[in-house]
Amino acid sequence: MLQLNASFIDGEECYSGARVRRQIRSPQGGAEVVLFTEIPVEHRPRVLIQMSHPVYTPGDYVKYRILLTDGLTKPLDKSTGSLPVTIALRHTTQHTVGSWVVQLDPGAVYNGQYLLTDDRDLGDWNLTATVDGQTTTKPFEVRHYSAPVHQISVEVDRMDMDKLKLNINANYIFGKPMQGTMTVTISGGDVPFSPIQKPISEQGKVMLLIPMEQIFDLGEDEFPAPPDVRVITVTVTVETSNGISSRTYHHTKPITVHPDNHQLTLHRMVGFDPEQNATLLVKLTPLSKNTILVDRQVTVSTQLWDEDENMILREDTFTRTVEKDGTAVLSVPTTDATTSVIFAVEYKALKSSFTVESSYNPELYVRILPAEVRASLTLGIASSHRLDGYVVVVRNHTGEVLDRIVIHESDSQESYFEYDLRRTGGLKNVHLFAKVNDGDRLVQTSISHEEPRLPSKSSISLEETNKSHEITVNTLSNLGVVGIAVYEGLLDWGNIDQINRYMMFNGSLYATPDEFFAEYANQVFITPSVKPDPSEPRSQLSEQPSTKFNQLLLWQHNASADPKFEFKIPAHVSQLTVTAFTFSSTTGLDVPVPIYWERNDVIKIHIHAPYSARKLEPVMVDVYVVNNRDRRINFLLVELQNTANEFQFLNNSGRIDAVKKTVFGSLEAMEVQRVEFLIKPKKLGPIVLKAIAYTLDDVFAMDETVLRTVPESELKTETIMRPFSIQGSVMKVSEKLSIPPMVDQGTEKITLELRHEQNQMATLPASLLLDPLVQADPFTMAVKASLTLDVLRMGEIHWPELDAEANAMVADSLDKMKGLVKPDGSFEIEGYRPGSFAACWGTIVAAKALTFAQPHSRDVKDSSGKALMDALAWLKGRQANDGHFCGGEVLDTEQRVEVTSQALLAFSSTGKHSWQYQTVINNARGYLRSTVTVLNDPYHLALVAYAMQYSARIKTGMETDAYLSETVNYALEALWVHKKTSPSQNFVWWDSPSNRSLEATSYTLLMLTSKKLLLESAPLVNWIKRQSYRRMPPVVTPDSHVALRALMSYAEHTTFLHQEYTAVVVAKDRSREIYNATLQRYSATHVLTLPPTTRSVSFTINGTITGTMQIIYSYMENVAQHRSRFNLQIVRYDESDMDYVYWGICVRFQPRRSLERTRMVTCEFSFPSGYIALDDSVEELQGLDEIVSVTTRNKETVLAVTFEEITVQGRCFNVTGFRRKRLDKVLPGELKVFDVTDPCKCWILLLCFAQN
User: Fold this and answer.
1) So what's the pLDDT on residue 94?
2) Is 2.40.30.60 the CATH classification of the domain at 46-142?
3) What pTM was computed for the model?
4) Could you give phi then psi for residue 868, rounded to 5 degrees?
5) Domain ranges in the chain?
């Protein structure tokens, strides 16, 4: 079993961010397991974000609040002082729109807002706030959204073998039931479904009983086959009428249906080791909400198959009872010849099967059982191999217990681990480590739990005072900060808790997961973290509303512990919702349940209009009038006001510019009627629509909304991205913005962003680069210890114990290597590539190990340097005339390429002694250049590319210096043909036929980072991070730890790069400088909003930084001016006789759509004053095949040439004019081009030219 060593570091010895090592040993003498984690004694500050809405529309303000917490939900101690918080707004298409730094005091609230100006802001957004390295993210969406006036819901009430019972509710958003006719159709079943039409009851409800034979085709057999689960689509159409007009409302919902009222699914947990148990997870999900899973059993049949799948080794059948959550774990023993197990599971008529295959590498699975299954925290654990035992690391939210490590003895593959949940203070995540029985392999996995619920111990009250209302937040704790948000209307969710939590600080309370990883003397296998089952209902904390909340009426907070807010409810508001929060040092963040308020009016009205409309486009405005009393209103007037003359009334007896339109009628008791107004907007921008209803006895109601009138313009967006990597140098770029002159004035939006890293997804903390220091051969130990010292140096990590251990290992390795050197300077490693070329390979391995270790040697006699020089001298003597090494022993071309590349890397690493080997390096380069074209294995291509690129630091002064880049680029192009890419484009790698895919990808990464192509390097880093790049190589190899070296090289240019810089941004319009700004490493913002008139940008940066300069600009262009239909070019030729003038005319068609064509295009040429068409020119044009007709008129002063078609390639012709008389005043000529077959879309383009 596994047990905890006594060297456990307690909390008093830890400091904030300390790296804690825990040794876990096996009493049977197995190797040590070291678990690392970063455990802060004091919680690092984090921020919480509240948004005013989950969905916004263009023209809205994005309002938000930010609280500074202690890492949990309580304010920081005031002695901490103010902290800098970096706030950023990021758009999916515009990237970072804004970024700024604010100073936030403990217990204070930061209020901010951002204006969404136009359609360029549509899409998905993220608001992020970062403090002390902890980032909280809040997503929101911007889209065209007009709240529907209806709410239709479809719920499954009951489902059995005979019928499906549906309850359908149809209501208006203001709470009244809809009246009319409902039509229900179903698609996705086996048989055609006849629509069902029913009247809606007075309560707005309809109950439907749908026979199962209208969904499933059971056939006419006496014993029909059981049907499969179906996902049907229920479409509800409600039609309401009002006089001679009607409105139709639609709602669609998918429903999973089966006569047995359940869905049976099988889920893979882990593979299996032959002779061990094969496991599978069964999940039985009810399809209706009223079903309780008690004493449900499934029948299981299993078949064990051999490797060739031509013989069943064993069959078995048994039953298993599912737990209350509908899950059950199936487990069957296997034999040593079993390669796969087929599970066939049945529940009543439901059937499902799944094949579990054997797994050579160990796998681990952990899941958290729901609380209703077991009272305490229970983990279900399954593994593919038999275990010695496991270590459970339980992390919590409260901070009272930093973490708990529990050692559990287990010699089985599946077990349940129970722990008292009350002692954990709220489960955050679980890390599980297990050691495989009778082996030296360690396997680990993890699972995360949902965040703790926010408390709700306070309450809200709303009381009427003198001409206003007073909102009070009642709480028993000492108030620190109180904030409220008031919305018009009733929020469109039925679940108050979900609304409350989404609006009030839900989401990423713990945005950055705690790192906890294992390092082991032998192989560590990581099973990916368990993801939530997609069939599970989403937790209340993570569910996000898909619709916009109603209009925000009040957004306010009091920092003076005053729980009272004065609020005057607008006259047109009849319903509102009040939400609030409190933030104090005693209770932390507390969110009370929202309250609702409704005005007790006799009548109410509600305006419904589309989100936006074009100018002069007819728009239908519906005004819904509600009678809230139980008696008839005999006379009612409803009017839509137009006092600002912003729109025209249509269908108003010719009075289109009236200041109002009035409609009169009557209302029955509790009735809802719709009044229609047809209008046409006259201006661009927002138009306030205000409606009033009143009766003869002075009963009054009012409502208003906004109609947005948008121009007929097209949005254009362009991006300029310039990546760079400088170290103590200067880079300057100048960019011109291709903004045409004819754009909608003031619509230009130009931002410049300076990013510190090119790709944030490829992050490399130092913890991923530290290799475990364990005993091995001296060559591997030298490389391993040297890389560890390099990581400590680059990351500026203060770890004296590890530093001393690594230096001791370097010294020990050098002593052992010096004892293996032969008199001639060569090395021959026992058991490594035996044969005639053993000395060649051994010397290369030793030379590379010595180059890594020598900078860390503390030998004053520098004996290791002499050993390196002797080894290189021996290799130099083994170089053939064509440049390759060890020619007599290595005959295969690929082996020669590999030996030569590794030798070139060794010779290029000699630093100040490289001048001695210029001829050797030059000849090796020549050989690799001559052979790179015959290589096919990505490993050899990548190795050659990196060796040539790495040797570029040595200038030999010979011809090979000139074609280094050519060779590297050829290898890189060949590599890019063979690359493998994940569907998400986040992972890139190469598959090597020689089973060296990790090495091939690593050498490619080394080459890319040395060329500072960091943007292209990031996907390679992501792939390597998922591999066992720190594992102990099974044999000595010159590729030792190449993956780790590649990651370190990337981190040196990104994570460990100490950035200090000054950037100057200068913006100019078409003639002069209009903007100047300076950015530095600690500037408050790195996103600049440039003036709209900017047309060119100059960017100069000086210092050390790897990053990207990005300019994103957009503008609106009127569609009428966006593109001419024809492109004209006219050239006037020099003439020998002043009485003759020659013009060359070219006309080219510019289609707006892919299939658009022209027919019968006429070019009408009007000559300047005094000129007429020359007869010879007219006759020449008539002889051309592509011309349909040539005519003259107005006494030959106008020449019309008609083509059958003008294509995108264009038509060109010549025209000659003859000066008939001389005039003192010459009027210019003109050219008209138009499509005579389409007069509705006739395009006339004028081009003037004058005669000198």
Assistant:
1) 55
2) no
3) 0.63
4) -70, -45
5) 46-142, 162-257, 261-360, 458-529+549-598, 604-710, 713-758+1057-1117, 1118-1246
